[in-house]
Hints:
- The chain is mostly helical.
- The protein has helices spanning 10-21, 24-36, 43-70, 76-84, 90-93, 95-122, 135-142, 157-176, 178-205, 219-227, 237-251, 258-262, 272-302, 311-325, 329-363, 367-387, 393-432, 442-464, 466-477, 479-508, 513-516.
- The longest helix is centred in the C-terminal third of the chain and has 40 residues, at 393-432.
- Bound molecules: 4-fluoro-L-phenylalanine.
Amino acid sequence: MHKSENWGTRIGVILAVAGSAVGLGNFLRFPGQVAQNGGGAFMIPYFIALLILGIPLCWAEWTMGRYGGVRGFHSSPGIFSVLCKTPKARYMGTIGLLIPLIIYMYYVLIEAWCLGYAISYLDGSLMPANNPGDYGVFFDNFIGANSDGALLTAEHNWFLGVLLVTFGLNFFFLYRGITKGIEAFCRVVMPIMAMLAIIVLIRVLTLGTPDPAHPDQNVINGLGKLWNPDFSKLANPSTWLAASGQIFFSLSVGFGVIINYASYLRKKDDIALSGLTASSMNEFFEVCLGGLITIPAAFIFLGNAVPTNSTFALGFVALPEVFAHMPMGQLFGFLWFFMLFIAAITSSLSMLQPVIAFFEEGLGLKRHASAAILGLISMLGAGFVVYFSKGTVAMDIMDFWVGTVLLVVLALIQAILYGWVLGIEKGEKELHRGSHIRIPHFIQLILKYVTPLFLLIIFFMFITGEDAAKSVKAIQDNPVAKMTMMFILVIFGFLLLMVHIAGIRWEKEGRFDHLLEEEDD
Length: 521
Ligand code: PFF
């Protein structure tokens, strides 16, 4: 019989879910999205998406996760089978493994950039005194953007070492398990991360007008640069699409990770308040910290030249320029990039856990065997992204098709499973078992009718939109883009096969027999 792992404490699980949610999305992706999509006006579609999609789907994932977990399953193939009362449903769950696994393959690289930048501030090599020259050129060279294979040259050995350390840390905490690994780590580093972010925020908000020659480049105008609303953008459907995309990415909803984390709860652990708390923490980090630091800081030193249309240019080019000019910039540069690294690692851990859980429960493998296989596959994937570094083509393809489009599909599957398969009556009862708050009934109606419809519309807008057309063209014209797509499909095929095998084992073991006659209590 399977032995179950559980979270140790309530604050532990909240911090772990918040750790997954708070990441590079909050500090880099969010300000870029706000600046490109109407500033303060973006908050209207953003909060609508939060209320209609984000938080309801979070609750649905928490509910279904705990429901599957108490019935012995922790991965989406298993949980979906429990919900549908047939092991055939497991195939749908494959995308709940594919999405976090593929995202990990490139997210871990960006995580290593952050650690690499933090170290470069420690040893001063990113400061102007050591003449890094143009920060754009520095960054392109750092990530090997100029040619494929560039990161494999001797000059980049140092970075590959940093990447290996990042990988090692992820697997170290993963291997230690839910309570001793992920929970213990998040409990320690989440408060540290919050403190670091607040220190940097105070530094930025007290900068005043550092350059008397440019009196308009001050804190107030910096905040205005990001937040002054441009309501005309609201007429553009792409603004609404961007807001929904940001909500998903930021809350880690639709990735198959919350459902996995929630599966380690006990039958009567609260989910209603915990889910809401974790989401609120994410919003605090995103709107109050992410929204007040990067763009205002960049504006104060660079004026209107802040690159608001590229997340990477903002985070890895504009900000180093800011730290170069800021009093005590070396210290703040280190604190900032180290904080980003912490934010990223608590997120990347959550991408690995669903897959390792699947190898354990689906294939009956022990922890070390599962970790070894997962290590091998994810290293292969990260190696692919490391090698095909030119123009970040491989990364962009993965991010668009898996990290943007496919997650809408998974969110839709989850909304249907909750609203129509489990059913909102049962769902509402489950959600409130052991709960510390009562959630209004209309949320259930939203989940059943509004959320799936909204998701369907978003899905069609995505695949008929400009970005999809651009990406398809890239796949036709660029061999690397084509290979990346093939790579994703190969991983998908492999996972499907594993899921197929897992189901045969589960059926043989009679893992679903008792579900059919289960009484609802
Ligand atoms: N929510 C994370 C962020 O804002 O950076 C990103 C993320 C975490 C994506 C976990 C996917 C995932 F499975």
